[in-house]
Structure formats: structure tokens, C-alpha cells
Amino acid sequence: MSENYPEFTRAEDSLDPSDVLERMRNQDAIYYFKSDMLSTWMVTRYEDVRELLKDERLRTPSIEKRIASFSEDQQAQLEGLRSALTVSALADGDSHRVVRNALKDYFTPSSINKMRPRVREVTASIFEPLDPKKPVDFVNAISYRLPAVVIAEILGVAREDAPKFMAWSKDMIKIYKQLEFSGFLEAQDSTVALTEFVTAIVNDRIENPRESADLANVFAELVKDGKATARQMASVGATLLMAGHESTAAQISKFVDAVLSDPAQKSELFADLSKLPHAIAEALRINSTSWAVRTALEDVEFGGVTFKKGQSVYLSIMSANRDEKVFPKSSDLDLKRGNARTHLAFSHGPRYCLGANLAQMEIQELANYLFGNYPGLEVVPGTREHQLLPMLRHKLTRLDVVLAPRGGN
Ligand code: HEM
């Protein structure tokens, strides 16, 4: 075990944490580090991360716990956020199992396939107004739109309400971007507004039942059966919004960037788009921005260290997915990699991402449209911008592309 995490972080690494993670992984499997923001164990290697993701002695910490770590005055300022989010029925325990069970049928491959035509339609509507000869910021003008519309429709949000819903969603993400008091405070008003809004949708659906393929009906059924309250369902809705929107958008951008940055893989993929699911698995593996933080419920002996009861354990999915022992030449997007789908980008075990099928279908549909219609697609050199996220992760914040460059195909 090492306590020297900070020595790995150098200014020149700040925009590409994968080099730092590689050095850490090579030197040690498990680290402990302290900072003003967080004190935590950090696990870096694939087999360990995979095993610990399914270890029930480690539980997902609640937002409430993070809020409780702020000063009393700060906690008082965050009361609205605390009560909006901490009633979530997706918190650990029996309610997690009940709600997960009720939601899982909604996200099976066959249910997700039924959404495909609508996702195709939304995808086309995003590209239609764009001038294919002019640069467009792919991250902000394209990737964010599709998952936002899809999740709004899944939650039963009326089309005219979608813009305000998306604005709330952008604010809420600040909770996870910074993990700091300021981020929580900035997210508070929107989170409260959003949970009230979803509570109203669920209550309305209970009072005025109607045939609909959205999740509001599933939420209303759970409330009618006494398995959850409308507020709890609203909190689940907020979780789905945050979980489903930002991460899918981030992965769409990173996938397109990864393909366009590798001419050999690009031409192989463009020549045969049936390789898309494999290419998406590879991009998810290489670019995992997902994270998994746990709290030890009891003392847990692991890999020569003890995670003491109450301590935080950060399982670095990004590092695990680049572990050379499991994925040789791990930073390459390899269309022939045999074990590409064993990546951990969607976690593993009891918390495995509920939206994994949906996210992959959205990325597939968008990429299919983009690569199929714009084979000459190019990145505008010098426009790639990144942002460093907590816990050695990073995301693209800008990537200009020209869909059909003059003189191109
Ligand atoms: C490429 C996009 C996505 C990635 C990489 C991703 C990744 C993850 C990961 C790593 C976890 C588990 C974290 C942990 O173990 O603590 C998770 C959980 C979850 N994800 Fe996703 N996710 C994505 C898209 C989605 C979408 C589209 C939805 C739904 C609309 C969704 C809904 C959820 C939910 C509800 C959970 C919590 C499951 C539970 O606690 O039982 N995710 N996701």
C-alpha cells in the first residue's frame, strides 16, 4: 500500500490522468491519500476493482453523508438539496432492491429496442438544422442533445417542458463535477425544482392513469402499491437524469473523438458499421469517466490492507479498464480485441448500470447516423478542450468538427 498519491500528479499530467494512473497501477495496487476534499483508499488494478465492485461489505455512500461532511453552517444552507435527494429509493438496502427490480424490465435489451425508432428520429432532428460545411462544436451542439431528449421522454416530461427540465439537469450535474460545497449549492435550486416537478408528474399519473410507455407509469404503480412514495420516485427520477444524461453525452463525444483520432480504425469501422458495438465497447473501456465510490460497512481485509469501517474506498474504473495485464496495449482502440466487452465502464455486480443497454443504443444510433451520412467527417485541429474531473478523470468540453468538409467525400 502506498500513501504517495500526490507525487504522481504533476502539472503536465493534469489533462491526461491516464499516464498518472498507469504509473500508479505499475507501482502499487492500493493507495491511501488525504486531501481537504476527500480522504480515501484508491484501488487501481482490474481484478481488484472488479472484485470489490460486487463486494456487499462496501456500500455506495449517500449524498447525505457528503453533505454531513460540510460545516454546520454549510449543511444548513443545503437543507433543500438534502431533503430532495436523500429520500432516494435507490439508496442502499431493501428499497434499492424493490426499485431496481421494478425498473429493470424497462431497461432490458428488448424494451430498449422498442425505443430505437424514436432515438433515430431525434438523432436526425439534431443534425438537420446544421450546415455540414461549417464547424460545429460536437460536444455541446450534438452529444448533449440526444441523451437529454431521451431521458426527458422516458420520465414522461411533456415536450413544452423539456427546455426547463434540461436547464435544471445541467445545474444538477454540478454536484458530481466538483464534490464541493459550492457545486452542491449551485445545484440546489434546480434539484429541488426538478424533484417537485417529477413528483407532480407521478401524482398526476396516479390521479389520471393513461396508456404510456414512459417510466412515470412504472413510478405511479410503485406508489399505488405502497412500495415507495411519489417523493422517493422523484428522487429516483433525478438520479436517472443525472446518471443517464451527462455520462452518455460524455461517452458519445469521446467515442467520436477516439474513432476520428485513429485513421486505421476509422477506415475499418466506416467500411463496416456492423463493428460499431465492438468499437463502442472499446471506447467505453478506454475513456471511462465513470467512478465508483464505496464506504466500508465493516473492517474489510483486502490485498494486504484493511479498509476500516466507515472509510471511503474509491474504485478507479478508468484505471482498471486500462490495466495492461488484462488489456494489452490498453490505450489503443482495437477493433479485434477479444475481451473488449469485459470492461467495467458500467460497473459490475449489484450496482451495474441500469441504463447500460439504453446508453449503448443511443451511442450506436448517433454514430450510425453520423458515420453513415458523413464519411468525410473531420475534427478541426486545435479545437479539442478537456476538463479535469475529481479523482483523476477527465472529459471533453469542446471538439469542433466539420461534417462534410469542402473537397471531402
Ligand atoms: C455511457 C453512459 C453511462 C455510463 C458509462 C454509466 C456508468 C454507470 C456506472 C459505472 C454505474 C455504477 C456506479 C457504481 O457502481 O457505484 C452506473 C449506475 C447507474 N446508472 Fe449508469 N451509466 C451510463 C448511462 C446511464 C443511463 C443512460 C441511465 C438511465 C437512463 C443510467 C442509469 C443508472 C442508474 C439508475 C444507476 C444506479 C444503479 C443502482 O444503483 O442500482 N446510466 N452507471
Structure commentary:
With 409 residues, the protein is of the alpha+beta class. The strands form four sheets. The chain has a five-stranded mixed sheet, with helices on one face. Strands 4-12-9 form a three-stranded antiparallel sheet. 52% of the residues lie in helices and 11% in strands. It has a single domain (6-402), classed as Cytochrome p450 (Orthogonal Bundle). The chain has helices at residues 5-8, 17-27, 46-53, 63-68, 72-77, 79-85, 94-104, 109-127, 138-143, 145-154, 162-172, 174-178, 181-207, 215-224, 230-260, 263-271, 276-286, 317-320, 356-373, and strands at residues 30-34, 39-43, 58-59, 136-137, 292-296, 300-302, 305-307, 312-315, 378-379, 385-389, 393-398, 400-402. Helix 6 crosses helix 13 (181-207) and helix 8 (109-127) packs across helix 10 (145-154). The longest helix has 31 residues, at 230-260. A hairpin with a 3-residue loop joins strand 10 and strand 11. The radius of gyration is 21 Å and the shape is globular. The structure holds protoporphyrin IX containing FE. The site of protoporphyrin IX containing FE has 23 residues, from helix 15 and helix 19. Protoporphyrin IX containing FE (HEM) is lined by residues 53, 60, 90, 100, 151, 239-240, 243-244, 247-248, 251, 290, 292, 345-347, 351, 353-355, 358-359.
